[in-house]
Amino acid sequence: MKMGDFSAIIAILAGVMGLLLLFAPGVLGKFNEYSKKMIAQIDTTTLSYRIGFGVSLIIASLFMFFMAYYFKIKGR
């Protein structure tokens, strides 16, 4: 897997999580209940500061999309 592909995958995940935190926190609450048993728990602090975390994840997502574009141009 090339570095640009990896950056794009991370950007998509961060963007989706950021949008969910901003516009559909109830979905993340339900996902939290389901994922307690399987993967990891979404901290209640994250949900209480959801706007800050959501905006931060969207900014990180945009940066990672830029990095994927940059790596594609450089051929890495």
Task: Give a quick set of tags describing it.
elongated; single chain; mainly alpha; 0% strand; 76 residues
Q: How would you describe this protein?
A:
By secondary structure, the protein is an all-alpha fold. The protein has one domain. Helices cover 82% and strands 0% of the residues. The protein contains 4 helices and no strands. It has helices at 3-23, 25-35, 44-48, 50-74. The chain starts with a helix and ends with a helix. The mean pLDDT is 81.
Please count the helical segments.
4
Count of domains: 1
Described by strand count, sense and barrel closure, the largest sheet is: none
Shape: elongated
How do the strands and helices of this protein lay out in sequence?
Elements: H1 3-23, H2 25-35, H3 44-48, H4 50-74
Helix pairs in contact: 1-4
Concise synopsis of the structure shown:
The protein is elongated. With 76 residues, the chain is mainly α.
